[in-house]
Each structure stands twice: as structure tokens, then as C-alpha cells.
Design brief:
332 residues, alpha/beta, 10 strands, globular
């Protein structure tokens, strides 16, 4: 065979091989999945008491997650509130939860089991401290609660933590100066109506359904908590720096406020997980929290306050890598 013919054959073979390799490359490109693996598996989300905002928010978020993360099975679990929620996530009993920033700081300060594993996904909405009495009560300020029966939230709740601190800031010792009643928002309104409580504390988003319902059916009144209480709380230490002065708008519980805004204090809620949580799952979870704001907010008003611009600030918790990946993906 002439040399020129041999070279032509070799060139033709090389062209055919190159074409085959190109076809194989296209097939591999076509068949390979794009992006990160789709999150899957089962997770537990610790919420709150049945009539509180945490649980209502959790149920609606569960519906949104079912659409966005169809391969993930989510179990909602009732709880007594922030302190129990943190203990569950830190111990592995739950994978995600909501807790107030002050409860997180307290958990860290006490170096409770698993505190170093906790990570933040998003800053959500603020809880407002609400102190209610019957309308005809002589109680005008926190100091007037001395000797009275006061609902202070359940053990393990964020309400209990903040109620004890507000009482102390007002110069009262909870275990000595009041008759503390351990109860949650699911029972305190009825106890107040029946005269078995003289007052109760609640810390939650505005409006909280149980408080709203109570204010519409009974003669009750919200007590103001002035800014001096916040100043005194800030003097206690690092774990109380997360409180800020706030105002309950006049239309939050119109009848209980006589159409007037009420001074109080507020604290941020955080979406919490652990450092071991799968980054893809956390990224998807965080994405749904932000994207579902308006949908959930149409039924649970506090959710309307979830804001992409502030969600990244999860102090005192470090941000989870998966959440950071989401925020970077949507950064302008």
C-alpha cells in the first residue's frame, strides 16, 4: 500500500474515533445529573405548643417543604418552647427547630450538652413579650404582680426564661414574690378568664392566635413594659443583650389595647440545626423558608417579617455552611 494511502486511512480512522468520543461525551453529559444531589431522607422539626406561633408556622412550612423537597419526609414534634427545642436538636432528637436568640445565648452560656454543635440557618421574626391581666385588675405595672398568681410559661419554654428575667428586672424574685404557675399559652388564657390566674406572660409573634381570641371574647388588658426594663436586662450580662425595646402596634389586639400602642420588649427567633446537618438539606430548607414568606405570612402574620436582608444574621449562632451557600447564591 502506498504511503500516501496509508496516511489517508489513518487520518480517516482518527476522524471516526474523534467523532465517537464526541458522541460518547454528549451521552455522558446528557445522562449525568446536574447540580448537587437532591436532598432525601427523614428529618424531625421540633415546633411548640399547639396554639402557639411556632407550631402554626411549622405546619405551614412543612407544606411548603413537601413541595420544594419532595424526597424529604418531615415529622413535626410539639414542644414546650425554645429551651426544650434546643436540647432536642443538640441531642439529635430533632434536626431543625425554632428558638429565640436569648434562649440560644443562655444555652451556650451554661455550656449545656451539645451547645457547640448548634448552627443557625436564618433569622426569622421577632417575639414580643405580652403581659395580660383582666381589664378591671388593679395591676398597672410589673411590680404590682407581687403576691399574685402569674402564668410564667412551661418549664423548658422561652416564655419561662424571659418571664423570670422581666420579673427580676422589676425587682421581683419569681420563686418568692409571686405565685408562679407553670402553664403554656394553650391553657393560660382560660385560667385568666376563670379567675385562676391574675396575670400571665407570653412571648410570641404578633398577633398570637390564642391571645387574639382571648382579647375578642373577654375583657383583658395588655400591660406596658417600658424601656427601663430593657436597660436593666442589658446590665445582667451577654445572654440578655438580645432584647430590644419594641412597640406592640395598636391594631395587634385592638380591644385589649383600647386602640393604643403598647411598649414592650422583643427578641429574634432563629431557625436552628447542627453542624452535622447535610449542607444540601440545609440549603434547601433555608431557601424554602425565604421563598414561602408571603404564602405562610398570609395565614401566620409574623412570617411576613422574614427578610432575606436580615435572615443571614443568626447571632449568637454561627451560620451553617448550607445556609451560607444559599445566601451566596442569591446575593445581588
Amino acid at each position: 500500500m502506498p504511503a500516501s494511502l496509508s496516511r489517508a486511512v489513518r487520518r480517516r480512522v482518527l476522524v471516526v474515533v474523534a467523532a465517537l468520543l464526541a458522541v460518547c461525551g454528549v451521552l455522558v453529559w446528557w445522562l449525568m445529573p446536574f447540580g448537587s444531589p437532591v436532598p432525601s431522607g427523614s428529618v424531625t422539626f421540633s415546633t411548640g405548643v399547639p396554639t402557639g406561633v411556632y407550631q402554626r408556622y411549622g405546619k405551614l412550612l412543612d407544606q411548603a417543604l413537601a413541595q420544594d423537597l419532595p424526597e424529604v419526609s418531615i415529622t413535626l414534634k410539639d414542644s414546650e418552647g425554645s429551651q426544650q427545642n434546643l436540647a432536642r436538636v443538640a441531642s439529635g432528637e430533632a434536626d431543625f427547630t425554632i428558638a429565640t436568640a436569648d434562649a440560644v445565648a443562655q444555652y451556650q452560656r451554661e455550656r449545656r450538652p451539645g451547645f457547640e454543635r448548634l448552627r443557625g440557618c436564618a433569622r426569622l421574626y421577632d417575639d414580643y413579650v405580652q403581659l395580660l391581666v383582666r381589664k378591671g385588675s388593679s395591676v398597672q405595672k410589673v411590680q404590682d404582680l407581687r403576691g399574685l398568681r402569674v402564668g410564667v410559661g412551661q418549664d423548658g419554654s422561652g416564655v419561662r426564661l424571659i418571664a423570670d428575667r422581666v420579673l427580676a428586672a422589676a425587682g421581683l424574685t419569681p420563686v418568692r414574690d409571686i405565685k408562679a404557675v407553670s402553664a403554656g399559652i394553650d391553657t393560660m388564657p382560660e385560667l385568666l378568664e376563670r379567675g385562676r390566674l391574675d396575670a400571665f406572660f407570653w412571648s410570641g409573634g404578633l398577633p398570637t392566635h390564642a391571645v387574639q381570641t382571648l382579647s375578642e371574647r373577654s375583657e383583658v388588658r395588655l400591660l406596658p413594659l417600658d424601656s427601663t426594663l430593657v436597660d436593666r436586662l442589658h446590665d445582667v450580662g451577654d445572654s440578655t443583650r438580645h432584647y430590644r425595646s419594641a412597640v406592640i402596634p395598636a391594631d395587634a389586639y385592638a380591644k385589649a389595647q383600647d386602640g393604643q400602642p403598647i411598649e414592650t420588649l422583643a427578641v429574634a427567633n432563629l431557625l436552628v440545626t447542627t453542624e452535622e446537618a447535610d449542607a444540601g438539606l440545609v440549603e434547601g430548607f433555608t431557601r424554602t423558608v425565604i421563598r414561602s414568606r408571603d404564602r405562610i405570612g398570609s395565614q401566620v402574620h409574623p412570617a411576613q417579617l422574614v427578610d432575606l436582608r436580615t435572615a443571614v444574621y443568626t447571632d449568637p449562632l454561627a451560620l451553617h455552611d448550607g445556609a451560607r451557600r444559599y445566601y451566596r447564591s442569591v446575593k445581588p
